[in-house]
Amino acid sequence: MAEDLTDRVRIRDEHVLSKKRYKLSEVDIDYRRSDGTWQRQTREVFDRKHAAAILPVDPKRGTVILIRQFRLPAFLTGYEKPLVEVIAGALDDDAPDVCARREAMEEAGIEVSDLKEVFHCFMSPGAITERMHLFVGTYGGRAAKGGGLQDEGEDIEVLEMPLADAMAMIERGEIVDAKTIMLLQWVLLNRT
Q1: Is there a single domain that holds both residue 83 and residue 113?
Q2: pLDDT one digit per residue (tens) for the chain, 192 residues
Q3: In terms of domains, do 30 and 57 share one?
Q4: Distance CA 82, CA 136 (A)
Q5: Torsion of CA 108, 134, 131, 38, to 10 degrees
Q6: 146 φ/ψ sector (left φ>0, alpha ψ -120 to 50, else beta)
Q7: Which domain holds residue 25?
Q8: Burial level of 61, CB count in 10 A (0-12/13-18/19+)?
């Protein structure tokens, strides 16, 4: 079991740098190192809130649902293609499973059943507070249009493909999103 760091971290001050859609802060701490000495540190922390992601699977047909959409941060790094991803969204005060079901309907127009949380993890713990709850679930046909919410800037293309094709996209570098790679790998390793 990992050590509780409560007695090794003293938060000295927090300066909010921005509080628009999300909060960006500069946090000053004292941290007691493993050799017992205290060290002053300053870190920028992006408070992204928690989220859920889901990979819908049709085990009978061996297919998965992914989405493709524009992501500005990836674009600004020079990745000039839309990202292929699993369905995901902020919890917005919902339980993670409720969020996963909501996002599946909003983004892909599908209802999911047999929902199973397979991971919860920090995607970028050096700078971002977001904890991601990762789910798999089964789906049948599409119940609605999907495509995301226009007022949130979403313009989502729904992709249905065999699991083998999605895995090949990872190998070719066409899927570069960590949560998507993790869930696809989990399904590949755990399919029955």
Answers
A1: yes
A2: 778 889 999 999 999 999 998 999 999 999 999 999 999 999 999 998 899 999 999 999 999 999 999 999 999 999 999 999 999 999 999 999 999 999 999 999 999 999 999 999 998 999 999 999 999 999 987 666 666 666 666 678 999 999 999 999 999 999 999 999 999 999 999 975
A3: no
A4: 23
A5: -150
A6: left
A7: 6-47
A8: exposed
pTM of the model: 0.89
Token pair of 2 as six digits: 């990992």
Say which residue the tokens 């919860």 belong to. Answer: 120
CA dist 130 → 10, 64, 140 (Å) = 21, 25, 30
For residue 97, tell me if it sits in a domain. Answer: yes
Count: domains in the chain: 2
Indicate whether 1 belongs to any domain: no
Q: Does the residue 91 lie in any domain? A: yes
- Residue 91 and residue 165 share a domain: yes
